[in-house]
Amino acid sequence: MKVAVVDNTGKLVDHGVIFPHEPKNEWDKSIAILAVLCQRHKVDLIAIGNGTASRETDKLAAELIKKHSELKMTKIVVSEAGASVYSASALAAAEFPDLDVSYRGGVSIARRLQDPLAELVKIDPKSIGVGQYQHDVNQVKLARSLDAVVEDCVNAVGVDVNTASAALLARIAGLNSTIAQNIVSYRDANGAFRTREELKKVPRLGDKTFEQAAGFLRIMNGENPLDASSVHPESYPVVEKIAAKSTKDIRELLGDSRFLKAVNAAEFVDEKFGLPTVTDILRELEKPGRDPRPEFKTATFQDGVTEIRDLKPGMILEGVVTNVANFGAFVDIGVHQDGLVHISSLSTRFVKDPREVVRAGDIVKVKVVEVDAPRARIALTMRLDDEAMPAKKPGEGGGRPGGRGGDQITSKRSFGDAPAAKVGGLGSLLMKAGVKK
Q: How confident is the model at residue 410 (pLDDT cuts 50, 70, 90)?
């Protein structure tokens, strides 16, 4: 297992390899190696990819945290979708020319915990999986559309200039790939930026570029609290006037919604700043550095359930929605195989489109309805009162309880010379999904 350590700017500071699982089973030695790395670099967070041996590694991290409670660490399982694509990309090779591909994947997983937008922007969205029929549409138009969405997203949210990659910075209005790389190089050589004004020291980042880009570049916990907001530096005098008139410190103004709503914007209008600009500034001060993303949450997988064979019908588990299709949603419950919640089992009411109920990334409670270990298929329901299917004996079919898909169906399609045969609950789901109504 490859281990990578990054600092608070996402810079790789150390890496190594451990062998806690089969065939070497160096469990205690692995914990000792990790402890040394964590102590040396004052690690706060442990990011664990949700791929192979994820649950076993989660257990390893839990034991590490328990044995070294003085380090006050937290562990979080992170989606590693697309990490392998990034690892083998030209971008990763340019960023880490002397680093093994598998270590690059570790760096990517750590960084996407720090700032998902900053890391995922390096990966072609099609490699992450953006839809059920993504390979059936015009690929040029799809790429252009996805590219536009990424740019809108980056500029709407803004980026933390002290953690953003060159690939992310290049998406900011006014910046190109050369200036973006210069920002990263300056940061690596001189440490984190403390003010927006310091950006002017970056080679080729002139006054005009600064004027275009500064409002989208955020500096968290810097010397000026306004640098963490979307208020442009040229508008700082307006905020200073508001603070002076109210005898409040700028830090006191930030987030004081009651006071800011009572401010008469017209009082601060002049030849340079019109009423719309002042109104926008006041709105930003109410929620400085607003982030449209919801609070970060992660699913808590059940202890002792790490493989599909550990699942039993009737179990109620927590999971995370990984994909939504027309016929239902796929949910990761921590057994290396996503389960399917059929559209009929998403809610007690009629659901026309699964996206009305769930979205990718949602944390949901599900009940195991049926498990077909040989074919690696898991049927789930979000209607926790549904009855689970009894365990099937070899050769038995099975129905699926409740809602659409509750009956057995007979396949009307023969394969080769084989006659049509009855299928069980899981087969019923998949066949009904393919039937055009």
A: very low
CB 432 within 8 A of CB 371: no
- Determine the average pLDDT of the residues in 210-238: 91
Q: What is the pLDDT of residue 323?
A: 87
End-to-end alpha-carbon separation of the chain, Å?
Answer: 48
Give, in order, the Cα–Cα distances in Å from 1 to each of 16, 269, 392. Answer: 9, 60, 37
Q: What is the CATH number of domain 308-434?
A: 2.40.50.140
Q: Domain residue spans in the chain?
A: 2-114, 152-286, 308-434
> Which tops the pLDDT comparison, 14 or 132?
14
Span 271-284, average pLDDT: 89
pLDDT band at residue 436 using 50, 70 and 90 as cut-offs? very low
Distance CA 111, CA 163 (A): 9
Q: What is the pTM of this model?
A: 0.59
- If one counts every other C-beta atom within 10 angstroms of the C-beta of residue 401, the result is 19
In this prediction, residues 383-409 reach a mean pLDDT of 55
Q: Is the pLDDT of residue 57 over 80?
A: yes
Q: Which of 175, 222, 170 is nearest to 196 (CA)?
A: 222
The dotted CATH code for 152-286 is 1.10.150.310
* CATH 3.30.420.140 corresponds to the domain 2-114: yes
For residues 274 and 227, what is the distance between their CA atoms, to the nearest angstrom?
22
HEC letters along the chain: CEEEEECCCCCEEEEEECCCCCCCCCHHHHHHHHHHHHHHHCCCEEEEECCCCHHHHHHHHHHHHHHCHHHCCEEEEECCCCHHHHHCCHHHHHHCCCCCHHHHHHHHHHHHHHCHHHHHCCCCHHHHCCCCCCCCCCHHHHHHHHHHHHHHHHHHHCEECCCCCHHHHCCCCCCCHHHHHHHHHHHHHHCCCCCCHHHHHCCCCCHHHHHHHHHHEECCCCCCHHHHCCCCHHHHHHHHHHHHHHCCCHHHHCCCHHHHHHCCHHHHCCCCCCHHHHHHHHHHHHCCCCCCCCCCCCCCCCCCCCCHHHCCCCCEEEEEEEEEECCEEEEECCCCCCEEEEHHHCCCCCCCCHHHCCCCCCEEEEEEEEEECCCCEEEEECCCCCCCCCCCCCCCCCCCCCCCCCCCCECCCCCCCCCCCECCHHHHHHHHHHCCC
